[in-house]
Design goal:
Elements lengths: L8 E3 L1 H17 L6 H25 L8 H30 L9 H7 L11 H14 L2 H15 L2 H15 L13 H13 L6 E4 L4 E3 L2 E3 L4 E4 L1 H4 L23 H7 L13 H18 E5 L7 E3 L3 E3 L4 E6 L5
Antiparallel strand pairs: 1-9, 2-5, 3-4, 6-9, 7-8
Helix pairs in contact: 1-5, 1-6, 2-3, 3-5, 6-8, 6-11, 7-8, 7-11, 8-11
Bound molecules: protoporphyrin IX containing FE.
Length: about 325
Amino acid sequence: MDALPDGGEHDVEVEMTHVTADIIFRTIFSVPMEGVDARRIFEAFARFQAVAPRLLLPSIYGLRWLVWPWDAWRSRQAAREIRGLLEALIRPRFDAHQAGEPARAADILQSFMEATDPQHGGGFSFDELVDQVAMLFLAGHETSASALTWACHLLANAPEVQERAHAEVVQQLGERLPELSDMKAMNLTRNVFRETLRLFPPVGFMARQASSACTLRKKAVRQGATVVVAPWLIQRHHDLWQEPDAFNPDRYDNDASRESLRQAYLPFGMGPRVCMGAAFALQEATLILACLLRRYRLSAVIGHEPQPVGRLTIRSANGVRLQLHRRGETS
Ligand code: HEM
């Protein structure tokens, strides 16, 4: 971002996606996402995501015949390319592990290779390993990228909150880079992210299948029916939140919000399939926001109003363009 002209207009979605993809890539493989192949994986995921919503919705509603053959073909092509590229990265590590060589790194790939099934004691096959890695790469960056992009939008439109968060970060960090131990002291920055997840939950809705017939809000639900749970609606519901449409990060320090948070805040889902990366996401996002807030002042572009759309995650149909003003070294 430093390469951009000071005060220039920029769509931050690109950087937010790149930084979170790079972080999860390093976490899985212990290498930065700089090589040519990594870029191809990234681009193939982008192509997959462009068609995914048009495949996902008909599948959820049991209307697979509505899927265009062209979309199905494009998603399969992208998926095949992703698998091929991931296989090339995983193969040498897998073969070394199978040959009993010592671990090359303490990363997620290593944990996956060492994992054993509690019932039959076996490990993942090569194909299963590729599935796990592909799933984690996608789950581990797309959601965080969406939320960070919306956080920038909200901060740009709330200069008072942004200045307070900037002051918090400067006071805590001075000139040094943030570390995990700084998390506690950057309460407002963390709350900015939590409030972003309420207003723009990256997973806007989740589908579940009823395991038995039941009644939900006076409606009969038959066994096997699809039930959609929508954080997008619940987290902005007027009966469940005070001033639901306002961006107010301070509500997380406020006793009055305790019940709303307990009952109606589920950006990471709930129950047995709750997001297993929630703590990871909260940490990475707070640290990224701290770096951004210290270095730049974000301001809204007059006349540009991002239009939320439900893609794989909640994204903006017309991008999220902001003005980036570089701050002085210690300002
Ligand atoms: C702001 C960021 C994130 C949000 C809002 C988010 C949200 C969610 C939600 C709502 C689910 C449940 C989906 C469902 O029930 O159908 C989920 C599942 C999952 N998430 Fe996240 N996620 C985020 C970041 C991450 C990260 C960084 C990782 C990995 C490091 C991750 C890994 C996973 C995995 C593996 C699952 C599947 C868990 C299971 O089914 O057992 N997520 N996430």
